[in-house]
Amino acid sequence: MTGLRAAFLLAACLAGLAVATLRIETDIRALTGVEASLEAPLDIPEGRTLVLAVVHPDREARSALARAIVHDLAGDPMVAHASTGAMPPPAGLSDQLWAARFVLAPPPPDAFAPEALAAEFARARAALTSMGSSGLAHAYLLDPTGSFRRLIEALTPAAGSGLPHHRGVTQARDDSAALVMITLAERPFDAAAQRAFDLALAARVEAAGAEALLVGPRTIAARISAETERSSTLVAAVGGGLLLLWLAVLLRSAGAIARLLLPLVLGLACAGLVVQAVFGGVHVVALGFGGALMGLAMDYPLHLHAHRGTAADLARTRRLVLLGAATTAVAFLSLLGAGVPAIAQVGVFVATGLSAAALPTVVLGAPGGAARPVTTALPQRRATRWKIPALALLGAGGAAAVLALPGPGARGYVALPPAVTDAIAALDRMMDLPSGRHRIEVEASTLAHLLARERQVAGVLADARAAGWVGRAALLAQTLPEPGTAPLPAPAAFAAALAQALPRTGLKPAFASEVLAAYRDGLARLEPDAAAPGPLDTLMGQAGLLRVEGGRLIASVRLWDVAAPTRLSDAVATIEGARMIDHEAALAANFGRLTARVLACFGVGFVACTILLACAVRRLRAVAEIMVSVLGATAVTAAAVALAGGGIGLFELMALALVVGIGIDYGIFLTLSASDGEDGQAVRSVMLCAMTTLIAFLTMALLGSGVLRDIGMTVSIGVIATGLAAHLRQRWPLQPGA
Amino acid sequence: MFGDCAAPPPVSAAAVLTGLAIDPNATIPYREEVHHDALPAPETASGTMHVAPDGWLVKAQARPRVEISEVGEDVVSLRDAPETERNLLPIPPEARPVLEALRAVMSGNLALLAERFAPALVSDTSLWRVRLAVHQTPDVLPVILIGCGAVLRGIEINEPGGIRRLIAFGTAR
After folding, report:
1. Could you give the ipTM of this predicted complex?
2. B43 contacts A128? CB cut-off 8 A
3. What are the chain A neighbours of B78 within 8 Å (beta carbons)?
4. Nearest residue in A to B141, CA atom
5. CB A65, CB A208: distance < 8 Å
6. Contact A141 B38 (CB under 8 A)
7. Other beta carbons less than 10 A from residue A326's beta carbon
8. Pairing of strands B43-51, A473-474
9. Chain A residue closest to B89 (CA)?
10. If you write DSSP's letter for every residue of A579-629 in order, what string do you get?
11. What is the pLDDT of residues A466-494, one digit of tens each?
């Protein structure tokens, strides 16, 4: 078996092993590292909500369909809870409310007057013959302070959505749709599974002749993910086809094309397997970025192909290929210091992949068969004195422009496709959605403390509304009755008032002892309550008003029409345990921190790469020329991208890292040429590589969407910039004695 | 409250349910007594009941005050006059079996009663009483059907806190 056959066999085996064993991770927490706020939008209860609008002109038909869908969803593992609107109270809720009635709805002092107690007994008697009090009437009789009744009456509207309903099914405000409220199961977000669930749900509605409108954070994320996948497939198909066409024109042999692709396949397979061995899986971010960056591996056989003229030239090219791969690998290994699993995986993926691609390249030699004489002469490159100063100046200007421009913020991370924004706008017309960007969180260890803080927030919100900073707000304290401020009377005082009230009600006097015992029991539960999850928390969690995290109660205040978020945030910050959340700003800040950290790593990597190059080449002027060219061209690229797109974010930064890798590679070949002949071959090989890279990344820029388009544009501009910068030659003053 | 009965006593709950004649389309007058230890005399109410074509049970109370309650699968809709805005009350899980049994009785869905609520004959006198176990423990707060021969005369519903509702139907049912 020849070495080439053995290499193909090895590549096939490794690729097969990788396809069979690689475990692709999609958990977004691997990208956020220690920063947890990124996961919040999809993992908190609000992130798991989903609204299905069943749009149909016939109210009866759409309501029946909504009800049938809720029935169908009952056993679906993707769904924790689904309802046609009115939330059923959790089991045991009335017991919890009864026990905590004096905490949640303390009676005002005048509720203890004998007349007031008698009036409340009369209400309780009347409630005995009302279906609305079914199951609660006995508790109403036992609590003549009215605390429990007021609590139930306050919470009942909160269980509804404030929207019209038909036969128990919530309807859109414009009477166009029946609404189904779904809480998705508490499981890690899986874009493919979510998309499949959404499509099946929409198909179920459409099969019944209605139109489905689905809006929820996970649904939106899954839709964006699916659109990115579609776009990637298109880019891969068109870009791959064009690349094959280009290689066919260039190499004119299927065998040579296969040989050219062999190092890339070996590199990708090795990279995937090594990352899996080190990290226990391969994150989709590492696969995506690593795969794109591995495109650099195609340059290695192309260099050999262009330099296959003489054995000496080929031997020198092999050394330069190894040097190029080593410098890029060192630069990317610096990402291990980012402290973010997915980004560290990108570093290991690229470093391993490029090394694994470079080795077989130099061992197997040039693809494309025997060398043919060069028939076209390229103009000699002229050396200039101003290359380094000009590039340094351009680079400094580019860097200053990037620093002066505002960052990308959350652009690219939260930009929604038009179809999604249309769906959100339509649902907003139907049910007046709260702000998806801003909310207030209030945290406390006990329900009593939480309500006290929420009431302070309510005061701030009232002022904010008056100042026009915010429209309306929904908070837990608002749904509860206005509390009394005075301490509750002692049992003896209550017993005395009860003794006066009871004879006026027609109730048996013996009942007083039961009422008094219930009052004593209520007083005994006035102590701060533990923040253990209970039915009330479940109910409020379903309403998006309350959740329990690590023994702390966290209430969420929903906001509408936030006009002055900064002022509102400052006002809320004065209340202990309360803070305003801006999801978009938090996301942008998180990615900003991540980008800064990755940039610092690349800085360290660049220095290491420079040292490695200097040690290997031992020509400081050449190394300086290569690195200044790379930095200048990259800074100009960054400035162009920042001006066109609005800032350099994480994705653009990773693309710029590829530009640096490419630039060093081009620089090594063009700057280290020892003679005019070598230089001509180097220009040829760099042009071949640049054309190949441009075909792939221009396709991405023109046909890709979102992140793909940004990466494609960044690399395309960068390849042209670094190619031009490397093509210039620096004329150095003669050294003494030279 | 449920009157005398001259029909022969039934032999089993199954025999009672098999023989019951219930017209699901009829509007039935009723009288309700609510008993509680604190009350010297029961509270009373009256009105009509019927099952709507979509399966909702409509209880139209006329006295002591007008209250129209419509019972669906998971919500009760309340209003104090036909034209007023409805107040929607979600049914808590504890109350769901009771209301489900009530809807099944009034709509004549006796097969559902037999399947879900383990009917048991608790009084085999002429005025029979069939217990429906609406809780996991059959004797806790049961719903009891009361009748004579093939006619359902009334229903007893037991609630927490010692409240006992006796509903007597005013027509041959």
Report:
1. 0.93
2. yes
3. 130-132
4. A135
5. yes
6. yes
7. 18
8. unpaired
9. A156
10. EEEEHHHHHHHHHHHHHHHHHHHHHHHHHHHHHHHHHHH--HHHHHHHHHH
11. 999 999 888 877 777 766 667 889 999 99
Question: Is A621:A732 a contact under the CB 8 Å cutoff?
Answer: yes
Please, is B44 exposed, middle or buried when counting C-beta atoms within 10 Å of its C-beta (0-12, 13-18, 19+)? Answer: middle
Name the one residue in this structure whose structure tokens are 């990108």: A346
Neighbouring residues of A161: CB distance < 8 A, sequence distance ≥ 6? A85, A86, A170, A179, A181, A431
Residue B21 sits at the chain A interface (C-beta within 8 Å)? no
Beta bridge partners, A446, equal none
Cα–Cα distance for residue pair A325/A346, rounded to 1 Å: 15
State the burial class of residue B42 (Cβ atoms within 10 Å of its Cβ: 0-12, 13-18, 19+): middle
Pairwise CA distance, residues A259 & A252, whole Å = 12
DSSP category for residue A733:
P
Sequence length of chain B is 173
pLDDT at A310 over 60: yes
Closest CA to A345 of A284, A254, A422: A284
Q: Is A637 exposed, middle or buried (0-12, 13-18, 19+ CB in 10 A)?
A: buried
Distance CA A342, CA A651 (A): 13
Q: Are A212 and A54 in contact (CB under 8 A)?
A: yes
Q: What is the pLDDT of residues A246-289, one digit of tens each?
A: 888 888 888 888 888 899 899 999 999 999 999 888 887 788 77
What phi, psi does B156 have (nearest 5°)?
-115, 125
The predicted pLDDT at position A205 comes to: 96
Sign of CA dihedral A606, A608, A609, A610: positive
Dihedral over alpha carbons A571, A577, A580, A586 (to 10 degrees): 140
**Contact of A683 with A378, CB cutoff 8 Å:** yes
Place A529 in a pLDDT band, splitting at 50, 70 and 90: low
Give the pLDDT band (50/70/90) at residue A30: low
